[in-house]
């Protein structure tokens, strides 16, 4: 092999190495920052092949996609002085790679900053509301407020907070029993009120029924007295008519009827001078 060919191959290899060191590829999910001696030279957000000065320039790449940061559960105090353990997470992305690199440097440092700011706003916003409001549908509005506040605070770091959500909001273990007892007492109170209302309504119904029964009984007794009076009047009239037709028979029939009443209770002692017993003696 001649010296010229060897030189050509060496030059070709060196050129390839220099070219490969001068080129870098930015993926569609990435953005790149080119540094020269620690100073930001260029920012590339479009995907493709880009060039840099070999051995001098350094390339730092960051995600363009939305990132998830799971914040550690923290205790907060609500407006009604209840303690909650809130487990939140933040969705965020790097919108200005130059500003992000100048201020945050790394993802881990950015997440630490996000943690401080988001937790601070969650604590302050939730502290203005009661426990019942936080666990209700209103929580969506509270989290939107937290998101907007955190987004404003982190904008100067090249970060956009897309959303802040709550995975879980629980009472501390020491408070769960107390809340359970309070809820049980409230249910007992409601049940007692319902029973009292039921008893009151039952007494009202019974009183009304007794009133109606008394009225009906009085009306029945009045009607019975009327019927009885009518019957007695009819009997008297019949007796009078019978007496008028045959006084002797009527007197005999009345005496026999009296015997039924006299003798039904046992033995009766009587004398000859008693007019009522004349039909027995004679």
TrEMBL record:
Pfam short name (any one): Band_7
GO biological process terms on file: proteolysis
SMART domains tied to this protein: PHB
GO cellular component terms attached to this protein's record: membrane
Gene Ontology terms, MF aspect: peptidase activity
UniProt keyword Transmembrane present: yes
Subcellular location: Membrane
TM segment ranges: 6-26
InterPro entries reported for this sequence: Band_7, Band_7/SPFH_dom_sf, HflC, Stomatin_HflK_fam
CDD domains: SPFH_HflC (cd03405)
Keyword line: Hydrolase, Membrane, Protease, Transmembrane, Transmembrane helix
Location of the Band domain: 21-183
UniProt family annotation: Belongs to the band 7/mec-2 family. HflC subfamily.
Annotated function: HflC and HflK could regulate a protease.
Name of this protein: Protein HflC
Taxonomic source organism: Thermosipho atlanticus DSM 15807
